[in-house]
Amino acid sequence: MSAPALHVGYLVNIYPAVSQTFIRREILALERCGARVTRFALRGWNDVLPDEDDRIEQAQTIYVLQRGALKLAAEIVLQFFTSPLQLLRAFALALRLARASDRSVAVHLAYLAEACFLRRRATELKLDHLHAHFATNPAAVGLLTRTLGGPPFSFTAHGSDIMDRPAQVGLAEKVGGASFGAAVCSFGRNQIFRWIPTALWDKVKVVRCGLEPGYGAGSTPPKARQRAIVCVGRLAPEKGQLLLIQAICRMKTRGIRVEATLVGDGPLRGEIERSIAASNLLDQVRLTGSLDAAGVRRELLAARALVVSSLSEGLPIVIMEAMAHRRPVIAPFLAGIPELVSSERTGWLYPASDIDALCCAIQACLDATEHQLAVMGDEACRQVWLSHDVDVQARNLLELMMNSAVG
Asked: Would residue 220 count as lying in a domain?
């Protein structure tokens, strides 16, 4: 008789979200591997979800904050009457996390209430393991859930959650209390190592994000007539789209016309629109807003190359998607990007924030022959599948979870 399927709870701050298809892919891959997955999110996506697959996920997700403040407070009372010592330990942990954080004690007490709810639901659902995505508040709530008597817990760290404010997120506490921590690239693991005792290093693994089987199948390399570049990402300061606008403007002053499409939306959209207008680039730069997966694929296939202009990253999923579609990538020497993109083999790397270097990289892309683009595109596709098959990565993740459940 085969062993029963591992029942895993997945905990995310906002789920589903247009920028987090990688979590959906991972969950579905775990289910293909035989795991049962219950989705939890602290809150939902407020805007319309353009992707039907995300809307399906939304219907399956349990939203913690939908219960309201009074019901969550009642969860603390219930925990007090059932397991007062565990609640006391979790309360002390919440205070320690608050001291290391830029968020108040009140916020961490809210995390404790959320954890009380999750601990109760984990018991009712007979969860074998709880996995959180991002090392910020989801990992904090997961750790508190474990402290309250919940199932073994782990988390995946990505980019800004460990690089922008690492000292404030209590990484040592989270890794110490987890069965394991996962980083999506070797650079990410290196960043975690900086903030935890060496005795905990063995608990941090690399589990990469990936693409589902068949993604990009049938894509052909760009043709010589395809001259436009595409940038895909949330319109936010850390994504650096304003640097790209400056680079396109600088190339225009040199008599070089660059056409670009920016896919995504976010808080910086107004400033980006004003910058485009002020630079007289309205006929060269197009903004599409948020697109579903099919729309992103369509824009990637219409482009000569993907350009990444980020100031802070882990390893962007869109780079994997572009490479699977045989598109070369223009990207900064930043975080985990050089682990996948090789300069002049699968794209062009440039020093982050260096506008002149970005201009040179775009120029090299525009100067590349159709044959060169084809060779780079084929190599890009080969490279991405060597380490970013989501089914392979999900099996690795599931094995780590199963070992923790047995332990």
From this structure: no
